[in-house]
Amino acid sequence: MGDERPLDLPGLHNIVAFHEGVWSGSVPEGDAGFDSLTSLGVRTIISVDGALPDLERARARGMRYVHLPIGYDGFDQARKLELARAVRDLPRPIYIHCHHGKHRSAGASAAIAVSLGWLTPDQAAARMAVSGTAKGYTGLWQCTAESAPIAAALLDAAPADFPERTMPSSLVAAMVEIDEVHDRLKLAQQAGWHAPADHPDLAPLADAGRLADLYRLLDDDAQLKDVPESERAVVREWLVREGLAAARLERVIESMSVTEQDRAALAKRADAALALLGASCKACHQQHRD
Known about the structure:
Blueprint: E1 7-9, E2 12-19, E3 22-25, H1 30-39, E4 44-47, H2 55-60, E5 64-67, H3 77-89, E6 94-97, H4 104-115, H5 121-131, H6 138-145, H7 152-157, H8 171-190, H9 204-218, H10 229-258, H11 263-289
Parallel strand pairs: 3-6, 4-5, 4-6
Antiparallel strand pairs: 1-2, 2-3
């Protein structure tokens, strides 16, 4: 808890403690990542990422996976209760992860630590800063700032059937959300990559992160089961390419949120990244949807 820098281990990045035996960090990468979790003695893994967990590697090492995704724009009280109960009740040490381990996992861990009475909101926010949570993810910071210790009776009433995997409703639903997120990003672009005055609730950094998350989520056999076998490889290649492009857009917008220097150059890079995403979406629609 006294560390002022994240820890990196083989296959694990950005590990930050939020309580004794409760860590936030990146998604475990292959056998190396899960072996590092074993070296830490981890017994429970909680993913707040949208992508589906690697259950097989976790089970092979005797670890339990819980999948409770949250958004880059924060999460509601119901999800906070589920997360806090899971951390309170499940075997420790517990490792909470998103994709990079900087934003969602840190925000979730901070809110949990406050909800369980381990940290004050200011102390929890300080741990988020160690994780490197970008200020542009205002919803995550707000969830921590508005958290308070939760009575045991309320936690006891929260669902305890913690899912190993939380599946999206359908491939079509995910594609619809991709279109909606893309439209919001275009509005932010028109406002110079800020939230427009007439739409102050927009969060371009959170939307770029969500877009990358959606592409990662769809790159899974369970999600592509309705795609003809002859087209599946092409669709998967497209998902990987789009996911990388969305991740690049997220990094550029995050850079703009950190400094105003070179903002014009960064805005041009963001414009180019969004244009590339838009062109690819249009081409895919023409081939597979229209």
